Amino acid sequence: MDKTQEILLIKYGEIALRGGNRRIYENMLMDAIRKNLANAGFAGLSVYKEQGRFVVVGDGLAGAIPHIACVFGITSICRGVRTSQRTLEGLYDAALEYTKENLGHCATFKVATKRADKNFPGRSDQMSAELGGHLLAHFPHLKVKLEKPDFNLVVEIRNSIYIYSQSTEVAGPGGLPSGSAGKGVLLLSGGIDSPVAGYLAAKRGISLTAVYFHSPPYTSERAKEKVVDIAKQLAFYAGGVKLIVVNFTEIQLFLTDKTPAAKITLLLKRAMLKMADKTAKKEGALALVTGDAVGQVASQTLHSLHAMTGAADLPILRPLVCYDKKDIVSLAQKIGTFDISVRPFDDCCTLFLPKNPETKPKLSIIQNIERRMDELDEMMEKALDGAEVFEF
User: Fold this and answer.
1) CA angle 374, 375, 376 (to 5 degrees)
2) Do 161 and 131 form a contact (C-beta atoms < 8 A)?
3) What's the 3-state SS for 211-267?
């Protein structure tokens, strides 16, 4: 029997349904995997395509798994072995050797065979039964258990034959490869919601440029550092994030002075959307992304969201629009942004909140107020021209 080789077998989900564009998505996903591995110091690992799978070979496979499992488009990763044997006898011997090394103290087992290569002789169910009998002959203490066995042996017959235990399977995030849906601009604050919105947008294949509005000296450098750290964490999943930090102080003070207190939050948010829209056009982005969730705060009532209409030419995506706060927090904890977001350093929005913000504003009134501020556009352009840019 030839020597088996340790491998990682990577499975992907909905890109398999992309028809004629499938190869494009597969190549983007493979590039994302290779990029993450290289950035994490695993450049010596090789990644190649299989029939409906990707395979990773080389040294340090176990340590590489976390850096692959975060890549959007992947549904799961299995650690197992590959054999070039192309006979039933060779397959059974390889499976027996793998079982000896990985069975441990398991008392029940099941065999599942997936025959993607239809030229390989036999039927999948027949092969599973015969292989199960072969294992029972060598491990008489085992019992077959089809539901929730201790040891679930999987054999995948493709260009090569892959053998692994389902217990080694690590879940991936699913979704689409980074950048496959185009570019978007994320309005990123230091709060809990916007990073989660960015994560969900990136999961649908949107590559992210983030814009953060900073108001020194009313917001400290620690507040900016918090957002920088959030952007770095998002980049771990999104395949990279460009962060643009805009000095918003002059605009914020101007609007606060010229606007009725109850309406200031909406005017500030509309100004941010307008500036994000300008940024998106320069970046070649096709949409804006915000962390709005209906009814969560005064500026996120349906009336308030409607009052944002027209502030941007591009569509505004709101991935969290119907999320419960508990669900947002849970996802923030899962992706590692929550502990950063709850650091006690406020951003510009929280510091300028009115005591009684308007919850049912009229768009026409908001627009009339803006029309009386001729200098606002020039102030926005100046702030954008002086923005600070980070690449992660």
Assistant:
1) 95
2) no
3) EEEECCCCCCHHHHHHHHHHHHHHHHHHCCEEEEEEECHHHHHHHHHHCCHHHHHHH
Gap between the Cα atoms of 340 and 320, Å rounded: 19
Alpha helices in 284-352 (DSSP H): 302-307, 325-335, 338-341, 348-351
Lowest mean pLDDT among 104-118, 130-144, 168-182, 339-353: 339-353
288 in Cβ contact with 273 (< 8 Å): yes
At residue 258, the pLDDT reads 86
Confidence of residue 374 (pLDDT cuts 50, 70, 90): confident
Structure token digits, residue 227: 């957002």
pTM to 2 decimal places = 0.87
- What's the longest Cα–Cα distance across the chain? 87
Tell me the per-residue pLDDT of 264-307, one tens digit each, with 9 for 90 and over: 888 999 999 999 999 999 999 999 999 999 887 767 888 888 88
Bridge partners of 8, per DSSP, are 56, 79
114 three-class SS = strand
Contacts of 119 (CB under 8 A, 6+ apart): none
Beta strands in the chain (DSSP E): 5-12, 46-50, 53-57, 74-83, 108-115, 143-144, 151-157, 161-165, 170-171, 182-187, 206-214, 241-247, 288-289, 316-317, 388-391
Q: Are 92 and 134 in contact, with CB atoms under 8 Å apart?
A: yes
Q: Which residues pair with 186 in a beta bridge?
A: 210, 289
Q: Is 377 helix (H, G, I), strand (E, B) or coil?
A: helix
d(CA 71, CA 172): 7
Cα gap 200→331, rounded to integer Å? 10
From 259, 248, 243, select the one nearest 361 (Cα to Cα).
259
pLDDT tens, 249-273?
A: 999 999 988 888 888 888 999 999 9
